[in-house]
Amino acid sequence: xxxxxxxxxxxxxxxxxxxxxxxxxxxxxxxxxxxxxxxxxxxxxxxxxxxxxxxxxxxxxxxxxxxxxxxxxxxxxxxxxxxxxxxxxxxxxxxxxxxxxxxxxxxxxxxxxxxxxxxxxxxxxxxxxxxxxxxxxxxxxxxxxxxxxxxxxxxxxxxxxxxxxxxxxxxxxxxxxxxxxxxxxxxxxxxxxxxxxxxxxxxxxxxxxxxxxxxxxxxxxxxxxxxxxxxxxxxxxxxxxxxxxxxxx
Length: 249
Hints:
Elements: E1 2-11, E2 14-24, E3 29-33, H1 40-48, E4 54-62, E5 65-66, H2 72-78, E6 80-83, E7 90-94, H3 95-109, H4 117-130, E8 141-142, H5 148-162, E9 166-170, H6 178-191, E10 197-201, E11 215-220, E12 223-228, H7 230-239, H8 242-248
Parallel strand pairs: 3-10, 3-11, 6-9, 9-10
Antiparallel strand pairs: 1-2, 1-4, 4-5, 7-8, 11-12
């Protein structure tokens, strides 16, 4: 599904990613961990196509198509979804209207008509019930006055509605208490299937107690320096990252 080879990227002429190789197949969950400043969020942004980051070397393909030059909207239409670490507020635009627009823009890109209103409402009800979301929540302005947990739950709702092939969750556990974390993780787990894949970017092992990864990758100095099973996350929680640095010397 996603193939990344020798990926180098920079921002404002500063090198951030220094040769990343990663392959993500349908049905898999990959966790990216690493200390602050290691390049985790930059990696998510580069995959999603944020224009402030420049790919200087390497290749990146999605379902066999080179996506290096595609803008974020085009990548989204191919089936990629990025959950932001700090979602923006959009006053005056309800959660429901925002997601209706996003879905219909995606359909338009595929040469399809807008989803019929009745079908849209049925889908919204189905996904809201699946994620245990109060219908009143959907009429509120997007992220305006939302708590950290509500913002994350809203993003999982968007993911449920858009049904992406690849979801990238950038530090989706940031600032969440344990109850909110369980709600978000439960939503991700309900949406996982053999037809989609998830990349979870996190500082902490605790999220991986609830979203169990098939692979854990450690990112340091803009490179993946170690990969393993979920047990690697527990090792990192117990020992930190210094032991990996020592292995690399």
